[in-house]
Prior knowledge:
The protein has helices at 5-15, 26-43, 47-65, 248-255, 472-477, 543-546, 591-595, 627-646, and strands at 92-106, 112-119, 138-141, 145-152, 161-163, 190-196, 201-207, 218-224, 233-243, 275-278, 297-300, 305-312, 319-323, 328-333, 336-343, 346-348, 353-359, 366-372, 388-393, 441-449, 454-459, 488-491, 497-504, 510-514, 519-524, 560-561, 563-566, 571-577, 582-588, 599-604. By secondary structure, the protein is an alpha+beta fold. A hairpin with a 2-residue loop joins strand 14 (328-333) and strand 15 (336-343). Its cofactor is Cu cation. The chain crosses the membrane at residues 32-53.
Amino acid sequence: MHKTTRDRYRLRDARRGTEFPPRKSCYSRYKYLILFSVITIITTSIVVPVVFVKVIRKAWTANQAEKDLSAWTHSFNITTDWDKSWPETGITRDYIFTITEHDVYIGPDGVVKQKAMLVNGKSISSELVIQPRTGPVIHADWGDRIQVTVVNQLQANGTSLHWHGFRQLNNNVNDGASGVTECPIPPGGNKTYHFQATQYGTSWYHSHISSQYANGIVGAIHIDGPASAPYDIDLGVFPISDWYYSPADILLSRVMDPVNPFVAGLPGAPPPSDNIIFNGTNVNPYDPESSGGKYARVTFTPGKKHRLRLINTSADNTFTISIVNHDMTIIATDFVPVKPHPVKSVYLTVGQRVDVVIDANQEVATYWLNATFSATQACGSSINPHPAAIVQYEGVPWWKPDQVGEPPAESYCEDDVGPVPVVQRALAPGTLFSFTGGENTLDVSLAVNSTVSKVFWAVNNQSINVEWDSPTLGKVLDGETLPAEENAIEIPGRSQWSVWLVQNLAPIPHPVHLHGHDFQILARSPAPANPLSPDSRPTLFDPATDSFRLFPSQNPSPIRRDTTVLPGFGWLVIAFQVDNPGVWLFHCHIAWHASQGLSVQFLEGLGGVNGTAGSYLPGGAGAVGSQESLDGEFGGNCPAWREYDASGLNPWPKLDSGI
């Protein structure tokens, strides 16, 4: 239930750190002000009070500009560890998302997309479009509860929605991963997701079934909370995404075809995107001067500092974001607040979010906001070679910027691990004392299965393959034994740290994402300058020379986030705390690679990987969701999906990993 307007303003005042005084009558509260005003009007000219009001307003505005945004309420601020505590606002934000299917869809760039699947009839957009806070943007405050009813009006496809980066503490059943925590929502069906914004910052949601979200089922999430640096204007979320004119399943079938790859001689090579969409729009890449599309615009107020919430919602493409003649200060990486970290540009891999503050201190004009691809050609490419949006200062007419600007530094497909979290977490003493990888090693490789003539990505020689009609969480609750092809790895215990070495035996870098947690990036190998060269070879983790790099003496303040880059032909060591029971995916976020099987499932604190009974769950089934949510999924949505799947009406059998 939403609060009254008065309560909302009282909540706003609480965020500013003010207390609520006892309510008084208007006269008793303002009698001295009224008396002073009457005397002033009688004894002075009209000019004096007008000047007085202007002076007061100017002083108040200056005070707001200098306000410390690290405070939220009297009990919560930027130093609060949101793994341990968060506000309880008593507010629920309700949304209804209807997923629809559109053939021969005129896209935001004016070009026909053969198949689009949209949320509430819109491709991804943000508060910056003409209709603020409409369409697929979820907007809430830290501590709010969020309730989203998803109505599936697709012609023949199931669907689900995953809330990227949300911890979902003791709420695994609402994570939204088909075949893992739920069955797909059948056509004509609906499901209501319930979760709380225990974190704050910027994120997104997307369908989590095969490569479906590449058809357009994505949206942005904006959770207001404290900030580690001051700013004057929050411009809101700014999603940036690759865009394909062909249907995702058609593209995927060719990616998985060893005989007819997009790049001759390279089975599994992805297609170039047709365009890059900024905040829901861009010009036609084939005819930029046509009237079909338009550049996205970001408006700066001269002399003000602006917060811009960058999100890479792509299926495959990664890029470096820069604004001509403007520097940026990073204040958050994914959902993790960081100490102000000045940069010239920001690299964004798939699934990552970076919140930046930009000072509008340049000449009042228009400037290009550029998305630049890596010259290595290992982490995405597009038919649009120089995608861009436009930054426009208030007070100037709109025109295309004159200055192209200097290209940003080459990323080598590597994200920045320099930002330091405001809230730092220390691994338990001795956790890394003898770490060598061993059983906690995940080897990533590309393989061609000649039996079925398909290209797969494997982890420890096994590509994940989940069952839509029998999700992993349901099997665990029922005490069933899990098939080997589900790539389930049991992590017993609680409150300890789990450390993993991920070794990439292929030249392609992978944006790896962990559900249910963020993780510390303890160390990684350097990104290769030319991973696709025939002479390139894997750099293997060597315990004798690399283990020391994991210790706090070498990396005292490791960055935390929920998505990072596994270097091509390289290695990555991450650590997360075992404190959230459930079945959590750890997968590559390139849509094609996830469909090709590049994933494992961590069974955390469940004791269910070998068929032990659900009673082993701490606190019973409530440790992975409320009884209402569990009953709704396994007593309602799953039976509905099985009925649809057995009806003969489903023309699309599962041909990939399912995730």
